[in-house]
């Protein structure tokens, strides 16, 4: 990739993406960050030697990829300010704002824009992210590849065929890190209840989560679970308790609730 990239918004996710691109040998001279926070921009410039600007329109006008990394609540204002940009099918807009449909972004930008909408998650801050991507009809195969390469700078990226699938992505991977944090929190508390010092319980729970997730990357999780679940053993008793208490149903209900809220947020963010 050699396209000029403009980041509108220079928060944590934008910083992570810029860092990932630089790590993957993307030319710093091809990256410009634009934000109202001058201190943050200067920090990024010193850290990555990228270009900085406080002029969204000029920054976007000079870029082949415009990465919209602002909060969902201000996306409309930011996009409407860019609507005077001349139509250019070669210019790709990439949004990482949760809950804002591509159709709304397109309308706010003046219509007929080439847009990829992404749903990243917070492990992207460690370049261990999982991102779902959707492209509108104007996006070319080459532009899809460019968008995927940008997001792969902070983890893996997976395309979905329907934009509505991003609501399911939100429920699984977007909100998912918090589910695992909560389970670790509960496991730590259970360790304390069983008599372990809090620090010991915390260390064991977190390292176990890291190890289990690492093993699960390349193996069937059902088989992995079977391998450590000996008949009449301690793990079997714990799994049976989970099943008897309908943990699976709880997970289904929780992700369904997240999915419903994702749909509601889209309506709230786009209503006139």
Q: Which properties best describe this structure?
A:
single chain; 272 residues; alpha/beta; Rossmann fold; ProC C-terminal domain-like fold; 2 domains; eight-stranded mixed β-sheet; 12 helices; 8 strands; 53% helix; elongated
Fraction in helix: 40-55%
Q: CATH topology of the largest domain, anyone?
A: Rossmann fold
Read across the widest sheet, the strand sequence of neighbours is 3-2-1-4-5-6-7-8
**Cα shape:** elongated
Total number of domains: 2
Task: Determine and state the CATH class of the largest domain.
Answer: Alpha Beta
Descriptive account of the structure:
By secondary structure, the chain is α/β, with parallel strands linked by helices. It is 53% helix and 14% strand. An eight-stranded mixed β-sheet has the order 3-2-1-4-5-6-7-8, with helices on both faces. The relative contact order is 0.10.
Summarize this, please?
The chain is 53% helix and 14% strand.
Furnish the topology, listing elements before pairings.
Layout: E1 5-8, H1 12-23, E2 31-34, H2 38-48, E3 51-53, H3 56-61, E4 65-68, H4 75-81, E5 92-95, H5 102-108, E6 114-119, E7 129-135, H6 141-152, E8 155-159, H7 165-174, H8 176-193, H9 198-216, H10 221-227, H11 234-244, H12 247-270
Parallel strand pairs: 1-2, 1-4, 2-3, 4-5, 5-6, 7-8
Antiparallel strand pairs: 6-7
């Amino acid at each position: 990739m050699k396209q000029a990239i403009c980041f509108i918004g220079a928060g944590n996710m934008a910083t992570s993406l810029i860092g990932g691109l630089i790590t993957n040998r993307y030319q710093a001279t091809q990256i410009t960050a634009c934000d109202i926070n001058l201190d943050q921009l200067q920090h990024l410039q010193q850290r990555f030697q990228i270009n900085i600007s406080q002029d969204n329109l000029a920054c976007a006008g000079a870029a082949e990829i415009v990465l919209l990394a602002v909060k969902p609540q201000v996306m409309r204002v930011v996009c409407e300010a860019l609507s005077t940009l001349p139509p250019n099918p070669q210019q790709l807009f990439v949004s990482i704002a949760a809950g804002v449909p591509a159709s709304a972004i397109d309308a706010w930008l003046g219509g007929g824009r080439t847009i990829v909408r992404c749903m990243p998650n917070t492990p992207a801050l460690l370049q261990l992210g999982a991102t779902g991507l959707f492209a509108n009809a104007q996006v070319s195969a080459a532009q899809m590849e460019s968008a995927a390469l940008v997001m792969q700078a902070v983890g893996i990226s997976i395309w979905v065929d329907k934009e509505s699938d991003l609501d399911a992505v939100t429920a699984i991977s977007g909100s998912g890190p918090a589910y695992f944090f909560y389970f670790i929190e509960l496991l730590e508390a259970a360790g304390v209840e069983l008599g372990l010092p809090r620090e010991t319980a915390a260390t064991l729970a977190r390292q176990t989560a890291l190890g289990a997730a690492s093993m699960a990357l390349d193996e069937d999780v059902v088989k992995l679970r079977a391998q450590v679940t000996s008949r009449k053993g301690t793990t079997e008793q714990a799994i049976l308790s989970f099943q008897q208490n309908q943990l699976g149903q709880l997970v289904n209900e929780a992700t369904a609730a997240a999915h419903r809220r994702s749909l509601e947020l889209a309506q709230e963010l786009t209503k006139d």
